Amino acid sequence: MEFITEHLLSLILFTPVLSAVVLMFIAGDQDKLIRWVALGLSLIPLALSIFLWVNFNSDQAGFQFQEQYTWYSPINASYHVGVDGISLTMVLLTTLLTPLSILASFTIKDRVKTYMVLFFLLEMGMLGVFLSLDLLIFFVFWEFGLVPMYFLINQWGSEKDTRKIFGREINARTYASYKFMIYTIAGSLGLLLAIQMIGVVTGTFDLLELYRVWPSISEGTLFGVPVVTVKAFAFWAFVVAFAIKVPVWPFHTWLPDAHTEAPTAGSMILAGVLLKLGAYGFLRFVLPLYPEESHRYALVLGFLAVMGIIWGAFSAYGQTDFKRLVAYSSVSHMGFVVLGIAAAAYAINTQDAAIALEGAVLQMFNHGLSAAAMFFLVGVLYERTHTRNLNEYGGLFPLIPVYGGILIFTSMASLGLPGLNGFISEFLVVRGTWPIFTLFTILSTIGLLFTGAYILKGIMGVLHGPLNKDWIGHVSEINPREIFVIAPLMVLMLWIGVWPAWILNVIDKAVIWFYGIY
Amino acid sequence: MSLETILWLIPLPPLLAFFIIFLFTYRNRGLSHWTAIGAAVLSWGGSLYLLWQALGIEHFGEHPITVSIPWLPTGITWLNIGIYFDTLTAVTLFFVAWTVLAIIVYSVGYHNYGKPKGDHDVPGLPPHGATVTDAHGHKKTVMSIEPMYARFFGMISLFAFGMYLLVVTDNLLTLFIGWEIMGLCSYLLIGFWYGKPSARNAMIKAFMTTRVGDMFMLLGIVYLYSQTGTLSYQAILYNEEVLAQLASTPAVWGLFGLSAAGLIGLLLFFGTIGKSAQWPLHTWLPDAMEGPTPVSAMIHAATMVSAGIYLIIRVFPLISAGMEHGHLTPTMVVIAVIGTFTALFAATIAIAQNDIKRVLAYSTISQLGFMVAAVGIGAYVAAAFHLVTHAFFKGLLFLDSGSVIHGMEHGVFHTGEHVDPQDMYNMGGLRKKMPITFWTFLIGGLALSGFPLVVAGFWSKDEIFADAFAHRYWVVFITLAVAAFLTAFYTGRQITLTFLGKARTRAAEHAQESNWVMTVPLIVLAFFTVTVGWAGIPGDFPIIGGLIPSWFHEFVGSSLLEHPEAVEFSFVPLLTSLFVALGGLTLGYFIYRKVEAGAPDPLAKPLGPVYTLLQNKYYFDELYDCLFVRPSKWISEQFSYYFIDRKVIDGVLHAMGAFVGFFGGFLRNYIDKPIVNGLGDFFGESTKKVGQQSRLLQSGRVQQYMIVGLATLAAFVTLVYYLLVGAK
């Protein structure tokens, strides 16, 4: 027991790798066994995370459950992990969505073992980002997560679609996976350089150390260039890397492609967790390491966030492909996260900033729930109809009333209907942003309005309409396995919407401590 | 149980009913409606008990009951939510409780409980009737039960929950939650028969139009919250310090020269414009008629639109903050103008509509305009009073119209005649066929037109006139008087066309009175349509004034910090009110009493193009379609998606990709291949060549090696000799 509490984070982080190893010992043709073992093993990190949540003391300031071991001593990089309220919620989100995604993947028939192994590796990569307290280790995990995702899109993505680029027809999943991979790596390039530069200047990669040292370096020159300039460059290197991941408008076009082409569970994880890595980067690295630059460039970031909110919603409304519609909704929703962060960066140390950040973190969690749920529902529909075109469904409501009810519920959570989770976080972001960026707040409501438009368009396309006789006998009601996937998400959506204090309290205290507000 | 506990519990039964119906009793129709009715009864009982208790508390207005608990952590503070019970809450609960209960009971009959399953009925379309064989072997078509019977009761329970939540809550945030839940329910119920294209469009239109207002309202809430750090009524609306501070702070950016209170009030009022269907966001309400009729009653009387009015009455202290010596604040002027305009505007449209429900829909918009205008001119109590009376008579009228349609449908099934059962021109003479419906409709119609003395609508409308007159808002007074005249006129037209004269179709000849499940709620609502008005008879009214104590004014007015004074009695507004009501009704009767089957509207000719304009609702739908709907579609599909994302951003990315590809090709073809590879190849190739050449020497023949060896040796010796000896 003591071993568990002392190494809790490492256990959470590396159980997925061990699970992957275990899976490799199962014969490749035992699909059923592999699925169930994978599901069972993926529940371990979830159980550990819940244990972590229960044992986490939100009243205590600072990172908890820290572990630190020398990793690469010549450059002072160490394996240093720890959690605070912000990373804790993200860890919970990750370990929750992974088993659900695995359960959602039970319909995968092609190379099941490889698929599941990739999923576990992906989980480790994501958890590593949230848990690292060392810049170099963080970067390793950051890049690591890309690889399994690339293969998941490239190998298990939708097969039919093609895309025309410069007159050449290419497979859409190939296109999407390349775009995803190259775009993200291109962004990481500057990040790596900036991290190395920080390491060279300060002689350490340890985050806690850097929080103290790095922001206070403000005068003189580095490498013969004024510090201000160097830091500005480093700031933008960080920002671009994270902005691509979030994605912040106009770096977002990889997202609709990747999400649309990925297999259902891949989209669930992409939207549910991977996008949060970028936002988490802003929260954990950009704001505390570059407080001055963040303040100086906050307006730019806020502007881009609003553009994302508005144009993301418009583009979602302009879709006829249901999955792409949901993908674009992520651009719009994540815009609120960035808007909250930008506003807080501009006026840190105010209660408004605290509220905006709280809203941003909760929005990350909420979007994780609702986007994963939406992608799952799109997947459920696709498996039955083999189309994603909203004009081809007709009125499916009479055929699949239970699915219809679930779809309406989830759509409403995504729309931000009061009483469900999305509203709480959007309200907090809007409330926190209003006194800081009033105009941006007003403009963002245009996005909220069109959120309504595209959500209703989706519901109408799928459910409402005269009964489409072609589907009778082909479209079956949602099955118990699928209900098991969606039910935990629905419970959480309702719970956070009705009684948000259990999670907000943790976030709230972490935000106040971490950013030294008050 | 203490009053607080009951207050907390009031919204709960309908919510539980919603969950129970959808999770457990869905397949059992009877159990589902009993669950919904049981829940409604519980909330109804609680509401009436609370009102009863409140009437007994002295100075209740000054000492409302409020309890709250922390809900949302915000930094180091918490946002509390809780319950608030004052006189306004009490009277609102009263009408909500009665109308909701009446509507739910009525729905059991409306959806043909106990009738057979339809022959071709599918979920998503109204029932088409079932063929039954009676004892004599005759086949006939009768009404069939609604295929989605249980779903209706589940949704309507959630609707009721939203309204109860909105009324009992103590802060604007939970009010907004109830507000939006009702928005969802209206969306789902307007589109209850989603198989009809018109219903599909109407459901989206309702949700989106109200959402426009909601977004402004959300900003208002956020603004208020930022300014005061709280959203509780008690801490803002009934707190002179905060109000004074809000009234003296200039609005953000000094917008329109308003105070913070003014701008917040205006933003919140936008919410009302959407929810209570005021111009220019009125277009959704008539289309909302696509839903089953009980839903129309729910939206028009018990919940949705009343919620909008409740909101501005509730935040009246904020709207009027900074009002001095009877000078209206700019926000109040805006509210008064919009309300007055809407009252007249909607009334003009109503006179040219033929659908029985649509006439009522426009009358609702118009009546809500009266209330909004009343709030705008500071007639707080009059607005609240009209809200209550309107809820009863409009709920009654809608249920009546549902009963009429039901009776007509019966006729349609019976005769097999294909006529629109909602078109008043297909009716006529229903008075004798449907006596209960007729008499109750008459009471409701008279209340709507403000028929003197007997009905509640007269007293509440009269109070608005009296207020406008006493404070000399002539424009408001005259416009509302014209609107009231038109109201009486179209009501007279409606009653005449529907119930009087002769039947104009065979279906109308065979119309049948609805059964008791539907008529009992009608009678109950009719009872209140008459009696509620007695609560507000001015004390100095000639002859009957003072017979019944006018407690409404006292009771509701006392919750304001500054108790409004009752206006002095004057004959001018009274006579005006009498003239427009009686005149309009009489005119309506005389013009329409002899309309023959198939004849055009008697007004169509004299009014000419104006009539067409009215019939087409001033073309607002078409206008909005051109101004907003089409452009947004174009922006979404063509501009935002294809142009920005696909063309520009992806174009840049692809260009970068192409450039990298091209650059890589250049490197490969012009640097890599010729220089790097060339150099490498050169060394490699030349070494290979040398090897190949020298391989010739390696022949394996000893003699040859010998010769080479000797020759080399000879050459070497010669060289050494030359170097050593020859050099000397």
Q: Can you tell me about this structure?
A:
- The complex is a heterodimer of chains A (518) and B (728).
- With 518 residues, chain A is mainly alpha-helical.
- Chain A has a domain at 290-518.
- Chain A has helices at residues 2-6, 8-24, 31-55, 85-104, 112-131, 135-144, 146-156, 172-202, 207-213, 227-245, 254-261, 264-289, 291-317, 322-346, 351-385, 401-415, 421-433, 438-462, 480-498, 501-514, and strands at 64-72, 77-83, 162-165, 168-171, 221-222, 225-226.
- In chain A, helix 12 (264-289) packs antiparallel against helix 15 (351-385).
- The longest helix of chain A has 35 residues, at 351-385.
- The two termini of chain A are 38 Å apart.
- Chain B folds into four domains: 1-111 and 146-322, no CATH class; 392-614, no CATH class; 623-696; 701-728.
- The longest helix of chain B has 76 residues, at 620-695.
- Chain B starts with a helix and ends with a helix.
- Classes of the chains: A mainly alpha (518), B mainly alpha (728).
- At the A-B interface, helix 8, helix 13, helix 15, helix 16 and helix 17 of A face strand 1, helix 6, helix 7 and helix 28 of B.
Topology:
The complex is a heterodimer of chains A (518) and B (728).
Chain A (H helix, E strand, L loop, with lengths): L1 H5 L1 H17 L6 H25 L8 E9 L4 E7 L1 H20 L7 H20 L3 H10 L1 H11 L5 E4 L2 E4 H31 L4 H7 L7 E2 L2 E2 H19 L8 H8 L2 H26 L1 H27 L4 H25 L4 H35 L15 H15 L5 H13 L4 H25 L17 H19 L2 H14 L4
Antiparallel strand pairs in A: 1-2, 3-4, 5-6
Helix pairs in contact in A: 2-3, 2-5, 3-4, 3-5, 4-5, 4-12, 4-15, 4-19, 5-6, 5-7, 6-8, 7-8, 8-10, 8-11, 10-12, 11-12, 11-14, 12-14, 12-15, 13-14, 13-18, 14-15, 14-17, 14-18, 15-16, 15-17, 15-19, 15-20, 16-18, 16-19, 17-19
Chain B lengths: L2 H7 L2 H14 L3 H28 L8 E10 L2 E9 L1 H24 L19 E4 L5 E4 L6 H20 L3 H19 L6 H32 L4 H4 L3 H9 L11 H16 L8 H4 L5 H10 L1 H11 L1 H4 L10 H21 L5 H21 L3 H36 L14 H4 L1 H15 L6 H15 L3 H26 L6 H4 L6 H16 L19 H7 L13 H22 L11 H4 L1 H7 L4 H76 L6 H25 L2
Antiparallel strand pairs in B: 1-2, 3-4
